[in-house]
């Protein structure tokens, strides 16, 4: 189905998943506002998309999520778009695979700020620019680790659990408006965000890693339904459900892998 005269803002557009999302939305005729912190990467993505999908409108906005002035500039640029936003996709974030005893206080703080606090502040400011004439969607891209606490990712889990809870609360608070707040949860994905030793650990544990293109396809399908949240992939879908009602079962499963997780998390300390 081709969707025309719709506009999507993609925050974190230059990452692996972000680029794949931009491609699939462009393929379906959705105008794109690409947001990322690397101006050169944004320009390359813009040029690639304009060649592949000349029928869509493209805008770049450079924004470093960690900088207050940069976030203010983003809101200023969005206010100049002169078109309502139909989809706002928050795909920005950081992770850190390390044992809790090795993680710095600075990293813990940055994880919460980049993954939760700053995105929520931006959402609050962007809400007035969302489409009022037809239902619009604000999508927070989370993680399986927003539903399952996993060793080596304590702070990351904390941030993604918080983002999921905030999304659920926003969905209920704005349920009488045209804005739908939704949570999209990829599982392990093969992107540059993951260090090579994380990929090696996943292979050793038999953890499937999806391509960014597959994740983007799943997100596009998610946009077509009305579910509040969506978990990508099996057996993760099952584990998430089981963890809600029988967490000890999931704990026992993870415990079998602890020695391998410890090994790779400790090795990650040297990188």
Q: Could you characterize the architecture of this molecule?
A:
The chain has a single domain, classed as Rossmann fold (3-Layer(aba) Sandwich), CATH 3.40.50. The protein has a seven-stranded parallel beta sheet, sandwiched between helices. It is globular and about 55 Å long. By secondary structure, it is α/β, with parallel strands linked by helices. The chain is built from ten helices and seven strands.
Briefly say what this structure is.
This protein has helices at 16-27, 39-52, 68-79, 105-126, 154-173, 196-205, 212-223, 236-245, 247-255, 258-268, and strands at 7-11, 31-36, 58-62, 87-90, 136-141, 179-185, 229-231. With 271 residues, it is an alpha/beta fold. The protein has a seven-stranded parallel sheet with strand order 3-2-1-4-5-6-7, with helices on both faces.
Topology:
Blueprint: E1 7-11, H1 16-27, E2 31-36, H2 39-52, E3 58-62, H3 68-79, E4 87-90, H4 105-126, E5 136-141, H5 154-173, E6 179-185, H6 196-205, H7 212-223, E7 229-231, H8 236-245, H9 247-255, H10 258-268
Parallel strand pairs: 1-2, 1-4, 2-3, 4-5, 5-6, 6-7
Helix pairs in contact: 1-7, 4-5, 6-10, 8-9
């Amino acid at each position: 189905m081709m969707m025309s005269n719709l506009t999507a803002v993609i925050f974190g557009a230059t990452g692996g998943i972000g680029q794949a999302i931009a491609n699939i939305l462009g393929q379906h005729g959705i105008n794109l506002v690409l947001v990322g912190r690397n101006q050169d990467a944004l320009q390359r993505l813009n040029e690639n998309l304009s060649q592949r999908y000349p029928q869509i409108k493209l805008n770049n906005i450079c924004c470093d999520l960690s900088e207050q002035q940069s976030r203010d500039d983003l809101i200023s640029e969005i206010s100049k778009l002169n078109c309502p936003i139909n989809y706002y996709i928050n795909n920005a974030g950081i992770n850190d695979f390390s044992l809790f005893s090795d993680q710095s206080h600075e990293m813990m703080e940055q994880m919460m700020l980049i993954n939760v606090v700053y995105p929520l502040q931006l959402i609050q400011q962007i809400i007035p620019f969302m489409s009022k004439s037809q239902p619009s969607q604000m999508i927070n891209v989370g993680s399986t680790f927003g539903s399952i606490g996993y060793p080596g990712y304590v702070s990351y889990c904390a941030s993604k659990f918080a983002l999921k809870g905030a999304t659920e609360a926003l969905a209920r608070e704005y349920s009488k408006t045209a804005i739908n707040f939704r949570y999209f949860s990829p599982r392990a994905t093969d992107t540059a965000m993951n260090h090579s030793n994380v990929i090696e650990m996943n292979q050793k544990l038999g953890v499937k890693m999806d391509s960014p293109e597959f994740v983007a396809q799943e997100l596009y399908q998610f946009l077509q339904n009305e579910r509040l949240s969506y978990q990508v992939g099996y057996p993760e879908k099952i584990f998430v459900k089981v963890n809600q009602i029988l967490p000890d079962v999931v704990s026992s499963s993870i415990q079998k892998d602890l020695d391998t997780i410890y090994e790779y998390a400790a090795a990650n300390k040297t990188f």
